[in-house]
């Protein structure tokens, strides 16, 4: 590569084969009884089964000549993403059971992905590289600030925290695959392409997730300026996740950027410590029963 990967040499990408909402089905407004918070997270979840399958395809296309370490990371990335797709498919079925109709959101995702699939494989990899950075910084914010899911139903919150943890863990895989695939490109060309792709991905992400959330709010009878005002406030003001990730998003455009320039594995360790504690508490409850 003529651009350096800074992925930690001791990083281990560990697929955690967990199951969540098949145990306890979330209520209609599972996120703190708030239709707006629920709508945005449901709109995100509606993208994951098809979107993460696309990520897997895009990265695996370049595994054949990848260095051994990167090849192993691609394999682990693939396993994690397949499990994410399975669990969000189950989560989406729970939303359907709660009365939401997700077909228009899923059709929008399929349409977007179809546009990229009609281009050379490097275009799919570039889109994946940009989207993986987007999901990683959202995941970081979700875990760094417990208030985002503080009032969510426990099983749904557990799903989102687990997903966020693994997004951080594999956040460098698509980027390192991109560096390897474009290793013969001049630095200027690589930067121009990745910057253009990130701007396009950002526009589409914001437009489509806003559109999807508004559609779900419409299904709850919340429409017009009221729906827009409540959604914009939630996304950009309080809790304002979109506002809070801006600096991490902007870092993507800096010379020498790499997702692991910020080593946030402490969030993974905190998650795992919390999971161990919760598991121990559950065993004590079962023994007492």
Short description:
It holds the Pfam family Metal_hydrol. With about 290 residues, the chain is mostly helical. It has twelve helices and no strands.
Q: What do these coordinates show?
A:
This protein is mainly α. It contains twelve helices and no strands. The protein has a single domain, classed as Ferritin (Up-down Bundle), CATH 1.20.1260. The protein has helices at residues 35-45, 48-60, 68-97, 103-117, 121-144, 154-169, 173-181, 187-219, 224-236, 241-244, 246-250, 265-288. Helix 1 (35-45) packs across helix 8 (187-219) and helix 5 (121-144) crosses helix 8.
Task: For the structure shown, list the relevant keywords.
289 residues; 12 helices; globular; mainly alpha; Ferritin; disordered C terminus
Structural class: mainly alpha
Examine the coordinates and then state which fold CATH places here, giving the name of the CATH topology. Answer: Ferritin
Helix and strand sequence: HHHHHHHHHHHH
User: How can the largest sheet be summarized?
Assistant: none
What would the principal axes of the Cα set say about the shape? globular
Tell me which CATH architecture applies here: Up-down Bundle
Radius of gyration: 19 Å
Query: What is the CA-CA span between the terminal residues?
Result: 58 Å
Q: Quickly count the helices.
A: 12
Percent strand equals under 5%
Record field, number of beta strands: 0
**CATH level-1 class:** Mainly Alpha
* Low-pLDDT stretches: 278-289
Helix content: 55-70%
Number of domains: 1
Round the mean pLDDT to the nearest integer and report it.
Answer: 93
Keywords: Hydrolase
Protein name: Metal-dependent hydrolase
InterPro entries: UCP07580 (IPR016516)
GO molecular function: hydrolase activity
């Amino acid at each position: 590569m003529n651009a350096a990967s800074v992925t930690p040499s001791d990083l281990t990408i560990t697929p955690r084969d967990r199951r969540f909402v098949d145990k306890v089905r979330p209520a209609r407004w599972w996120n703190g009884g708030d239709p707006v918070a629920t709508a945005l997270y449901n709109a995100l979840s509606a993208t994951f089964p098809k979107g993460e399958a696309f990520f897997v395809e895009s990265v695996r296309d370049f595994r054949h000549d990848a260095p051994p370490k990167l090849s192993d990371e691609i394999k682990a990335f693939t396993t994690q993403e397949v499990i994410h797709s399975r669990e969000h498919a189950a989560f989406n079925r729970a939303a359907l059971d709660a009365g939401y109709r997700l077909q228009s959101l899923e059709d929008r995702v399929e349409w977007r992905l179809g546009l990229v699939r009609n281009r050379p494989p490097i275009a799919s990899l570039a889109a994946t590289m940009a989207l993986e950075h987007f999901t990683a910084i959202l995941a970081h914010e979700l875990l760094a600030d417990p208030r985002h899911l503080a009032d969510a139903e426990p099983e749904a919150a557990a799903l989102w925290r687990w997903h966020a943890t693994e997004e951080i863990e594999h956040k460098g895989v698509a980027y390192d695959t991109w560096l390897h695939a474009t290793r013969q490109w001049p630095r200027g060309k690589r930067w121009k392409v990745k910057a253009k792709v990130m701007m396009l991905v950002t526009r589409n992400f914001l437009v489509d997730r806003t559109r999807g959330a508004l559609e779900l709010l419409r299904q709850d009878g919340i429409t017009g300026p009221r729906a827009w005002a409540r959604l914009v406030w939630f996304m950009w003001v309080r809790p304002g996740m979109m506002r809070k990730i801006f600096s991490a998003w902007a870092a993507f455009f800096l010379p020498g950027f790499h997702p692991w320039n910020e080593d946030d594995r402490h969030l993974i360790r905190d998650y795992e410590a919390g999971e161990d504690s919760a598991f121990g508490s559950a065993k004590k409850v079962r023994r007492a029963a």
